[in-house]
Amino acid sequence: MALQFVGLFANDPVYQAAQAQLTLCDRPAAPADAAWGLWPAPAVLGATLLGKLANVPGANVVVRGARGRMPVGDTQLIGVPAGGQQQHNLTAETAGSLRTWLAANPGAALTVVVNVTTSPSTTFAGTIVEILNHELSAHAEPYADFLIAEAAAAGTGVLDTADQQHQALAAGNPRYRLIGAEYVTTHPAADQAPRYRTRMAQDTVANATLPPGV
Predict the structure, then answer these.
(1) Is the dihedral of CA 36, 192, 203, 78 positive or negative?
(2) Is pLDDT at 189 greater than 90 in this prediction?
(3) What is the spatial distance between Cα 169 and Cα 131, in angstroms, rounded to a whole number?
(4) Taking CA 92 as the corner, what is the angle to CA 157 and CA 148, rounded to the nearest 5 degrees?
(5) What span, in angstroms and rounded, lies between the C-alpha atoms of 209 and 180?
(6) Which runs of consecutive H residues, i.e. helices, occur in 64-173?
(7) Distance CA 20, CA 55 (A)
């Protein structure tokens, strides 16, 4: 389907810079990444993150930037039955219950909605990139992987709960580590790598870390 960046990503120069920087750091894993503990690379790292999210069977991915009281992100899966208008929040569904809903609603329109919010005093490229990396790697990509697997062979998709996704992030989500390591080593400006590290350290829910030595 499609990947769209909307809201502040359409007109705010800091948000636009963050999107461009994330895009540059989004790459498949390479043998040289062994130094970061990412080789042999997990299958999930065989393609770029943004490329995968732009081609999720039956689902669009919408990333929305907005101004708020604090830097925060969240990801939801929204379903609308074919021919209908009512939105169903499917975020809390398990693999089994989501599979049941999809079977009961063939042709439903699915949207993975990723919200990125910063306050005027926390609108830095590095902060936005960290929130994007967290939400896209830990939450949006699992939905993509589930839907890709289901499209290939019904009943094979796997989907962890949000708590399990956070636990995986804290334990070293490979995609998050790869993009984060690439970012902090190639974007050293004051509003970039240091802000990324600050936001990551404050991300107490995930408590995610960069690869050793980065």
Answers:
(1) negative
(2) yes
(3) 13
(4) 25
(5) 9
(6) 95-104, 125-134, 141-152, 162-172
(7) 19
Determine the 3-state secondary structure of 60 from DSSP. Answer: strand
Radius of gyration of the chain (CA): 17
pTM, full prediction: 0.95
Beta strands, E only, the chain:
3-7, 59-67, 72-80, 88-89, 109-118
Q: Look-up: residue for tokens 């936001």? A: 199
Entry field: residues in the chain: 214
Tokens of 5: 């960046």
The Cα 109–Cα 76 span in angstroms is 14
Q: pLDDT, tens digit, for every residue of 56-111?
A: 999 999 999 999 999 999 999 999 999 999 999 999 999 999 999 999 999 999 99
Taking the CA atoms of 155, 159, 161 and 162 in sequence, report the sign of the dihedral they define: negative
CA 205, CA 169: separation in Å to the nearest integer?
A: 10
